[in-house]
Protein backbone atom coordinates (compact mmCIF):
# COMPACT_ATOMS: atom_id res chain seq x y z
CA UNK A 1 0.00 0.00 0.00
CA UNK A 2 1.25 3.47 -0.93
CA UNK A 3 1.22 5.27 2.40
CA UNK A 4 0.84 9.02 2.73
CA UNK A 5 3.32 10.75 5.04
CA UNK A 6 2.74 12.82 8.16
CA UNK A 7 5.52 14.77 9.88
CA UNK A 8 5.17 14.51 13.69
CA UNK A 9 7.09 16.94 15.92
CA UNK A 10 7.07 16.12 19.61
CA UNK A 11 9.26 16.45 22.67
CA UNK A 12 8.15 13.07 24.05
CA UNK A 13 8.54 9.88 22.03
CA UNK A 14 9.94 6.38 22.70
CA UNK A 15 12.33 5.44 24.17
CA UNK A 16 11.06 8.14 26.56
CA UNK A 17 8.62 6.56 29.02
CA UNK A 18 7.02 9.90 29.95
CA UNK A 19 3.23 9.76 29.84
CA UNK A 20 3.08 11.96 26.74
CA UNK A 21 5.11 9.43 24.76
CA UNK A 22 2.36 6.83 24.83
CA UNK A 23 -0.19 9.00 23.02
CA UNK A 24 2.24 9.60 20.16
CA UNK A 25 3.43 6.00 20.18
CA UNK A 26 -0.17 4.85 19.81
CA UNK A 27 -0.81 7.16 16.88
CA UNK A 28 2.40 6.15 15.08
CA UNK A 29 1.83 2.47 15.72
CA UNK A 30 -1.67 2.39 14.23
CA UNK A 31 -1.53 5.05 11.50
CA UNK A 32 -0.29 2.64 8.78
CA UNK A 33 -3.59 0.76 9.10
CA UNK A 34 -5.30 3.96 7.97
CA UNK A 35 -2.91 4.80 5.14
CA UNK A 36 -0.35 7.02 6.89
CA UNK A 37 3.38 6.62 7.52
CA UNK A 38 5.02 8.70 10.25
CA UNK A 39 8.19 10.77 10.05
CA UNK A 40 9.00 11.82 13.63
CA UNK A 41 11.27 14.57 14.97
CA UNK A 42 11.98 14.11 18.70
CA UNK A 43 14.81 13.91 21.23
CA UNK A 44 16.37 10.43 21.56
CA UNK A 45 15.90 10.67 25.32
CA UNK A 46 15.67 13.25 28.09
CA UNK A 47 18.17 12.87 30.94
CA UNK A 48 15.57 13.76 33.59
CA UNK A 49 12.84 11.37 32.41
CA UNK A 50 12.36 7.60 32.55
CA UNK A 51 13.43 5.55 29.53
CA UNK A 52 12.04 2.21 28.30
CA UNK A 53 13.94 0.96 25.26
CA UNK A 54 11.38 -1.80 24.74
CA UNK A 55 8.82 0.77 23.59
CA UNK A 56 10.75 1.33 20.36
CA UNK A 57 10.05 -2.26 19.31
CA UNK A 58 6.35 -1.49 18.99
CA UNK A 59 6.89 1.12 16.27
CA UNK A 60 6.14 0.13 12.66
CA UNK A 61 9.30 -0.63 10.64
CA UNK A 62 8.42 2.04 8.06
CA UNK A 63 8.58 4.78 10.71
CA UNK A 64 11.41 7.28 10.26
CA UNK A 65 12.71 9.00 13.39
CA UNK A 66 14.96 12.06 13.36
CA UNK A 67 16.68 12.06 16.75
CA UNK A 68 17.52 15.63 17.70
CA UNK A 69 19.77 15.80 20.75
CA UNK A 70 19.97 18.38 23.49
CA UNK A 71 23.19 20.09 24.44
CA UNK A 72 22.93 19.84 28.21
CA UNK A 73 26.57 19.44 29.16
CA UNK A 74 28.37 21.60 31.71
CA UNK A 75 26.98 24.39 33.93
CA UNK A 76 25.14 26.02 31.02
CA UNK A 77 23.42 22.76 30.17
CA UNK A 78 22.34 22.30 33.78
CA UNK A 79 20.85 25.79 33.81
CA UNK A 80 19.02 25.16 30.54
CA UNK A 81 17.52 21.96 31.95
CA UNK A 82 15.71 23.91 34.66
CA UNK A 83 15.04 27.30 33.09
CA UNK A 84 14.83 26.89 29.31
CA UNK A 85 14.91 23.21 28.30
CA UNK A 86 13.68 23.91 24.77
CA UNK A 87 16.17 26.67 23.95
CA UNK A 88 18.88 24.20 22.95
CA UNK A 89 16.47 21.93 21.09
CA UNK A 90 14.05 23.98 19.00
CA UNK A 91 16.65 25.40 16.56
CA UNK A 92 18.09 21.93 15.98
CA UNK A 93 14.62 20.50 15.58
CA UNK A 94 13.89 23.10 12.91
CA UNK A 95 16.90 21.87 10.89
CA UNK A 96 15.67 18.30 11.27
CA UNK A 97 12.15 19.25 10.17
CA UNK A 98 13.48 21.07 7.13
CA UNK A 99 15.49 18.04 6.09
CA UNK A 100 12.50 15.76 6.74
CA UNK A 101 10.27 17.93 4.54
CA UNK A 102 12.90 17.89 1.77
CA UNK A 103 13.45 14.13 1.88
CA UNK A 104 9.99 12.74 2.65
CA UNK A 105 7.56 15.35 1.30
CA UNK A 106 4.94 14.94 4.05
CA UNK A 107 1.38 15.94 3.16
CA UNK A 108 0.45 16.97 6.72
CA UNK A 109 2.31 17.97 9.88
CA UNK A 110 1.32 17.31 13.51
CA UNK A 111 2.88 19.02 16.51
CA UNK A 112 2.13 17.76 20.02
CA UNK A 113 2.62 19.48 23.36
CA UNK A 114 3.37 20.01 26.16
CA UNK A 115 5.84 21.52 26.13
CA UNK A 116 3.66 23.75 23.97
CA UNK A 117 6.48 25.83 22.58
CA UNK A 118 6.85 22.89 20.18
CA UNK A 119 3.89 24.46 18.37
CA UNK A 120 6.14 27.38 17.43
CA UNK A 121 7.79 24.98 15.01
CA UNK A 122 4.37 24.29 13.55
CA UNK A 123 3.84 28.01 12.94
CA UNK A 124 7.24 28.35 11.30
CA UNK A 125 6.97 25.25 9.12
CA UNK A 126 3.46 26.10 7.96
CA UNK A 127 4.61 29.54 6.88
CA UNK A 128 7.77 28.27 5.20
CA UNK A 129 6.49 25.14 3.50
CA UNK A 130 2.71 25.64 3.45
CA UNK A 131 2.21 22.33 5.24
CA UNK A 132 -1.31 21.57 6.45
CA UNK A 133 -1.01 21.51 10.23
CA UNK A 134 -2.68 19.66 13.11
CA UNK A 135 -1.87 21.05 16.59
CA UNK A 136 -2.33 18.41 19.32
CA UNK A 137 -2.83 19.56 22.93
CA UNK A 138 -2.21 16.82 25.51
CA UNK A 139 -2.79 19.37 28.30
CA UNK A 140 -4.02 22.98 28.41
CA UNK A 141 -1.50 25.71 27.65
CA UNK A 142 -2.82 29.18 28.50
CA UNK A 143 -6.59 29.03 27.99
CA UNK A 144 -8.29 27.51 31.02
CA UNK A 145 -5.16 27.60 33.20
CA UNK A 146 -5.54 29.95 36.16
CA UNK A 147 -1.85 30.27 36.96
CA UNK A 148 0.53 29.11 34.29
CA UNK A 149 3.60 29.96 36.35
CA UNK A 150 6.77 31.64 35.14
CA UNK A 151 7.21 35.37 34.64
CA UNK A 152 4.47 37.78 33.50
CA UNK A 153 6.51 38.41 30.36
CA UNK A 154 6.69 34.68 29.66
CA UNK A 155 2.96 34.31 30.23
CA UNK A 156 2.21 37.12 27.77
CA UNK A 157 4.49 35.54 25.17
CA UNK A 158 2.82 32.14 25.64
CA UNK A 159 -0.63 33.73 25.23
CA UNK A 160 0.47 35.39 21.97
CA UNK A 161 1.87 32.15 20.59
CA UNK A 162 -1.23 30.19 21.63
CA UNK A 163 -3.46 32.71 19.83
CA UNK A 164 -1.26 32.47 16.73
CA UNK A 165 -1.49 28.67 16.81
CA UNK A 166 -5.28 28.79 17.05
CA UNK A 167 -5.41 31.14 14.10
CA UNK A 168 -3.03 29.21 11.84
CA UNK A 169 -3.59 25.50 12.53
CA UNK A 170 -5.83 23.64 10.09
CA UNK A 171 -7.06 21.39 12.90
CA UNK A 172 -6.73 21.59 16.69
CA UNK A 173 -6.97 18.42 18.79
CA UNK A 174 -7.59 18.36 22.55
CA UNK A 175 -7.29 15.16 24.56
CA UNK A 176 -10.58 15.45 26.48
CA UNK A 177 -14.03 16.90 25.75
CA UNK A 178 -13.64 19.35 28.63
CA UNK A 179 -10.31 20.66 27.35
CA UNK A 180 -11.82 21.02 23.89
CA UNK A 181 -14.73 23.02 25.33
CA UNK A 182 -12.30 25.35 27.12
CA UNK A 183 -10.45 26.03 23.86
CA UNK A 184 -13.70 26.63 21.97
CA UNK A 185 -14.83 29.15 24.58
CA UNK A 186 -11.48 30.95 24.46
CA UNK A 187 -11.19 30.94 20.65
CA UNK A 188 -14.72 30.78 19.19
CA UNK A 189 -13.45 31.78 15.75
CA UNK A 190 -11.46 28.51 15.63
CA UNK A 191 -14.13 26.30 17.23
CA UNK A 192 -15.09 24.62 13.95
CA UNK A 193 -11.52 23.36 13.59
CA UNK A 194 -11.38 21.80 17.07
CA UNK A 195 -12.04 18.19 18.03
CA UNK A 196 -11.44 15.97 21.06
CA UNK A 197 -9.46 12.73 20.71
CA UNK A 198 -8.72 11.10 24.06
CA UNK A 199 -5.75 8.99 25.01
CA UNK A 200 -6.23 5.23 24.92
CA UNK A 201 -4.90 1.73 25.46
CA UNK A 202 -4.00 -1.37 23.42
CA UNK A 203 -6.10 -4.41 24.46
CA UNK A 204 -3.49 -6.86 23.23
CA UNK A 205 -0.93 -5.45 25.69
CA UNK A 206 -2.88 -7.04 28.56
CA UNK A 207 -3.39 -10.51 27.10
CA UNK A 208 -0.20 -11.97 28.61
CA UNK A 209 -1.36 -10.97 32.09
CA UNK A 210 -4.99 -12.02 31.81
CA UNK A 211 -4.90 -15.07 34.08
CA UNK A 212 -5.52 -14.92 37.84
CA UNK A 213 -2.14 -14.17 39.35
CA UNK A 214 -2.62 -14.17 43.13
CA UNK A 215 -4.13 -16.24 45.83
CA UNK A 216 -5.03 -15.35 49.39
CA UNK A 217 -7.47 -13.20 51.29
CA UNK A 218 -5.59 -9.87 51.06
CA UNK A 219 -6.85 -7.21 48.71
CA UNK A 220 -4.17 -5.35 46.77
CA UNK A 221 -4.44 -1.68 45.75
CA UNK A 222 -1.85 -0.35 43.29
CA UNK A 223 -0.82 3.10 42.14
CA UNK A 224 1.74 3.10 39.30
CA UNK A 225 3.58 6.27 38.27
CA UNK A 226 4.74 9.55 39.73
CA UNK A 227 2.89 11.88 42.09
CA UNK A 228 2.96 15.50 40.94
CA UNK A 229 0.79 18.53 40.15
CA UNK A 230 -0.66 18.62 43.65
CA UNK A 231 -1.63 14.93 43.73
CA UNK A 232 -1.42 14.15 47.44
CA UNK A 233 -1.56 10.51 48.65
CA UNK A 234 -1.81 11.42 52.34
CA UNK A 235 -5.64 11.52 52.56
CA UNK A 236 -5.67 8.04 51.00
CA UNK A 237 -3.13 6.89 53.58
CA UNK A 238 -5.35 8.35 56.32
CA UNK A 239 -8.28 6.34 54.98
CA UNK A 240 -6.19 3.14 54.98
CA UNK A 241 -5.05 3.83 58.55
CA UNK A 242 -8.63 4.33 59.70
CA UNK A 243 -9.73 1.10 58.03
CA UNK A 244 -6.90 -0.78 59.72
CA UNK A 245 -7.95 0.58 63.11
CA UNK A 246 -11.66 -0.14 62.68
CA UNK A 247 -12.04 -2.80 60.02
CA UNK A 248 -15.68 -3.74 59.26
CA UNK A 249 -16.69 -7.35 59.83
CA UNK A 250 -15.67 -9.50 56.90
CA UNK A 251 -13.55 -6.76 55.38
CA UNK A 252 -10.34 -8.20 53.87
CA UNK A 253 -6.87 -7.05 54.91
CA UNK A 254 -5.60 -4.33 52.59
CA UNK A 255 -2.19 -3.97 50.99
CA UNK A 256 -1.33 -0.86 48.97
CA UNK A 257 1.64 -0.58 46.61
CA UNK A 258 3.05 2.58 45.01
CA UNK A 259 5.24 1.89 41.98
CA UNK A 260 7.29 4.59 40.30
CA UNK A 261 9.99 7.22 40.44
CA UNK A 262 9.89 9.15 43.73
CA UNK A 263 12.39 11.82 42.64
CA UNK A 264 10.93 15.31 42.54
CA UNK A 265 7.45 14.34 43.71
CA UNK A 266 5.38 16.78 45.75
CA UNK A 267 5.06 14.55 48.86
CA UNK A 268 7.64 12.55 50.82
CA UNK A 269 5.67 9.35 50.45
CA UNK A 270 7.96 7.13 52.52
CA UNK A 271 7.86 9.58 55.44
CA UNK A 272 4.06 9.86 55.14
CA UNK A 273 3.71 6.07 55.33
CA UNK A 274 6.07 5.80 58.28
CA UNK A 275 4.36 8.65 60.14
CA UNK A 276 1.05 6.76 60.03
CA UNK A 277 2.55 3.45 61.09
CA UNK A 278 1.64 1.80 57.78
CA UNK A 279 5.00 0.24 56.91
CA UNK A 280 3.49 -3.26 56.94
CA UNK A 281 0.46 -2.22 54.90
CA UNK A 282 1.76 0.22 52.26
CA UNK A 283 4.90 -0.49 50.22
CA UNK A 284 6.87 1.60 47.75
CA UNK A 285 9.10 0.45 44.90
CA UNK A 286 11.02 2.20 42.14
CA UNK A 287 10.17 2.68 38.46
CA UNK A 288 9.54 -0.33 36.24
CA UNK A 289 9.14 -0.89 32.51
CA UNK A 290 5.83 -0.25 30.78
CA UNK A 291 5.20 -3.98 30.45
CA UNK A 292 5.95 -4.56 34.13
CA UNK A 293 3.63 -1.70 35.03
CA UNK A 294 0.81 -3.44 33.14
CA UNK A 295 1.60 -6.65 35.03
CA UNK A 296 1.31 -4.79 38.34
CA UNK A 297 -2.10 -3.49 37.31
CA UNK A 298 -3.37 -6.90 36.25
CA UNK A 299 -2.21 -8.46 39.52
CA UNK A 300 -4.15 -5.91 41.55
CA UNK A 301 -7.70 -5.91 42.88
CA UNK A 302 -8.16 -2.12 42.83
CA UNK A 303 -6.26 0.59 40.99
CA UNK A 304 -5.77 3.93 42.73
CA UNK A 305 -5.99 7.09 40.62
CA UNK A 306 -5.01 10.51 41.98
CA UNK A 307 -5.95 13.65 40.07
CA UNK A 308 -5.02 17.26 40.76
CA UNK A 309 -7.52 18.88 43.16
CA UNK A 310 -9.96 21.21 41.45
CA UNK A 311 -9.23 20.00 37.93
CA UNK A 312 -12.24 19.37 35.73
CA UNK A 313 -10.70 19.60 32.22
CA UNK A 314 -8.19 16.84 31.56
CA UNK A 315 -7.45 13.43 33.04
CA UNK A 316 -4.36 11.51 34.20
CA UNK A 317 -3.17 9.56 31.17
CA UNK A 318 -2.83 6.31 33.13
CA UNK A 319 -6.61 5.98 33.49
CA UNK A 320 -6.77 4.45 30.00
CA UNK A 321 -4.35 1.66 30.96
CA UNK A 322 -6.51 1.19 34.05
CA UNK A 323 -9.49 0.68 31.76
CA UNK A 324 -7.50 -1.81 29.71
CA UNK A 325 -6.65 -3.74 32.86
CA UNK A 326 -10.40 -3.95 33.65
CA UNK A 327 -9.81 -3.56 37.37
CA UNK A 328 -12.08 -1.53 39.69
CA UNK A 329 -10.81 2.05 40.01
CA UNK A 330 -10.74 4.26 43.10
CA UNK A 331 -10.40 7.81 41.78
CA UNK A 332 -9.56 10.72 44.08
CA UNK A 333 -10.82 13.51 41.85
CA UNK A 334 -13.59 15.97 41.13
CA UNK A 335 -16.92 14.30 40.42
CA UNK A 336 -18.04 16.58 37.59
CA UNK A 337 -15.08 16.70 35.20
CA UNK A 338 -13.52 14.83 32.31
CA UNK A 339 -12.31 11.99 34.50
CA UNK A 340 -15.82 11.22 35.72
CA UNK A 341 -17.00 11.16 32.09
CA UNK A 342 -14.24 8.74 31.06
CA UNK A 343 -15.00 6.40 33.94
CA UNK A 344 -18.72 6.41 33.17
CA UNK A 345 -18.06 5.63 29.51
CA UNK A 346 -15.58 2.86 30.29
CA UNK A 347 -17.98 0.42 31.95
CA UNK A 348 -15.30 -0.46 34.54
CA UNK A 349 -16.44 -0.48 38.22
CA UNK A 350 -15.32 2.70 39.96
CA UNK A 351 -15.90 5.11 42.80
CA UNK A 352 -14.93 8.79 42.97
CA UNK A 353 -14.08 10.55 46.23
CA UNK A 354 -12.84 14.10 46.93
CA UNK A 355 -9.02 14.11 46.90
CA UNK A 356 -8.68 15.66 50.37
CA UNK A 357 -11.46 13.89 52.34
CA UNK A 358 -10.24 10.73 54.13
CA UNK A 359 -13.71 9.86 55.45
CA UNK A 360 -15.28 9.86 51.99
CA UNK A 361 -12.26 8.04 50.54
CA UNK A 362 -12.75 5.36 53.19
CA UNK A 363 -16.44 5.03 52.36
CA UNK A 364 -15.75 4.84 48.61
CA UNK A 365 -13.09 2.20 49.21
CA UNK A 366 -15.42 0.03 51.30
CA UNK A 367 -18.05 0.22 48.55
CA UNK A 368 -15.54 -0.59 45.84
CA UNK A 369 -14.08 -3.54 47.74
CA UNK A 370 -17.45 -5.24 47.55
CA UNK A 371 -17.46 -4.80 43.78
CA UNK A 372 -13.83 -5.93 43.49
CA UNK A 373 -14.47 -9.16 45.39
CA UNK A 374 -17.33 -10.01 43.06
CA UNK A 375 -15.43 -9.24 39.83
CA UNK A 376 -13.61 -12.26 38.31
CA UNK A 377 -9.87 -11.76 37.93
CA UNK A 378 -10.04 -12.69 34.24
CA UNK A 379 -12.64 -10.05 33.40
CA UNK A 380 -11.93 -8.30 30.13
CA UNK A 381 -12.76 -4.76 29.19
CA UNK A 382 -16.45 -4.34 28.52
CA UNK A 383 -17.57 -3.49 25.01
CA UNK A 384 -18.33 0.10 26.02
CA UNK A 385 -14.60 0.67 26.62
CA UNK A 386 -13.67 -0.13 23.01
CA UNK A 387 -14.05 3.54 22.16
CA UNK A 388 -10.83 4.12 24.10
CA UNK A 389 -8.61 1.70 22.19
CA UNK A 390 -5.64 3.38 20.55
CA UNK A 391 -6.52 1.87 17.19
CA UNK A 392 -10.01 3.34 17.26
CA UNK A 393 -8.73 6.75 18.34
CA UNK A 394 -6.00 6.73 15.69
CA UNK A 395 -8.74 6.16 13.14
CA UNK A 396 -10.29 9.45 14.30
CA UNK A 397 -6.94 11.19 13.86
CA UNK A 398 -6.49 9.64 10.41
CA UNK A 399 -9.83 11.11 9.35
CA UNK A 400 -8.50 14.55 10.30
CA UNK A 401 -5.23 13.93 8.44
CA UNK A 402 -7.16 12.80 5.38
CA UNK A 403 -9.29 15.92 5.48
CA UNK A 404 -6.34 18.27 5.94
CA UNK A 405 -4.28 16.55 3.27
CA UNK A 406 -7.15 16.52 0.75
CA UNK A 407 -8.38 20.03 1.48
CA UNK A 408 -5.00 21.69 1.75
CA UNK A 409 -2.93 19.82 -0.85
CA UNK A 410 -0.05 21.99 -1.88
CA UNK A 411 2.36 22.12 -4.74
CA UNK A 412 5.83 21.64 -3.33
CA UNK A 413 8.31 24.34 -4.05
CA UNK A 414 11.99 23.44 -3.83
CA UNK A 415 12.96 23.21 -0.18
CA UNK A 416 16.59 24.05 0.56
CA UNK A 417 18.11 21.20 2.54
CA UNK A 418 20.33 22.38 5.37
CA UNK A 419 23.92 21.48 4.58
CA UNK A 420 25.26 22.31 8.02
CA UNK A 421 23.92 22.56 11.51
CA UNK A 422 23.68 20.51 14.70
CA UNK A 423 21.20 17.86 13.65
CA UNK A 424 21.33 14.15 14.36
CA UNK A 425 20.87 11.80 11.43
CA UNK A 426 17.55 10.13 10.78
CA UNK A 427 17.26 6.58 12.02
CA UNK A 428 14.74 3.80 11.69
CA UNK A 429 13.64 2.00 14.84
CA UNK A 430 14.69 -1.61 14.94
Tell me what the structure shows.
By secondary structure, the chain is of the alpha/beta class. The protein has 2 domains: 4-200 and 389-427, 3-Layer(aba) Sandwich (Rossmann fold); 204-383, 3-Layer(aba) Sandwich (Rossmann fold). The protein has 13 helices and 14 strands. The strands form 2 sheets. Strands 7-6-5-4-1-2-3-14 form an 8-stranded mixed sheet, with helices on both faces. Strands 10-9-8-11-12-13 form a 6-stranded parallel sheet, sandwiched between helices. Helix 4 (119-129) links the parallel strand 4 (108-113) and strand 5 (133-137). Helix 1 crosses helix 13 (390-407) and helix 4 (119-129) packs across helix 5 (152-168). The longest helix has 18 residues, at 390-407. It is globular, with a radius of gyration of 22 Å. It starts with a strand and ends with a strand.
